[in-house]
Amino acid sequence: MKNLKIYTLLVLAFAIGCYEDKDGNPPPLDLPSLSITDLNLTEGDEDFIASFEVTLTGTNTTNVVVSLASLSRSAEAEVDYKIINPETMIFAPGETSKSIQVEIVGDELLEGKEEFELVLFNPINATISKGTGLGVIEDDEIDNSELIIPSTGYTTPLTYPGFHIVWKDEF
Asked: Which residues of 16-51 are buried (b: 16+ CB within 10 A; e: fewer)?
């Protein structure tokens, strides 16, 4: 008799846990959604930190976990940029945004535009609405390829029409 009561309780608990809607399908989950921003950056000669924002929209009543990876396009990892954050992000209940910090490596090299991506994947307790953040690094060096300096050097004129020279010493 005792086993029958336990069996009945288990069947009822299973039936309640497997509730189906009238069309035979369980109700859809109302999961929060993750998205990541894009960044346009100017390289500079010194290293600096840039932050991609990951936002969580909707109601999260439990921890949301998402994995993170970087993909190089024309920018090289560890040469042009370095990911500072861990490979997994955890949103506690109530949290709505987190930053992914990236160190942009500055240099004095003349380069073209460089790009990399940060990709969100493998979400737990959430969906991904925008899973790729594009990082664009614009070079700040000046292209002097059109500047023509004669091989004999450049001679400074002694006069400039319309101007009065005050200081004549060379520097």
From this structure: eeeeeeeeeeeeeeeebbbbbbebeeebbeeeeebe
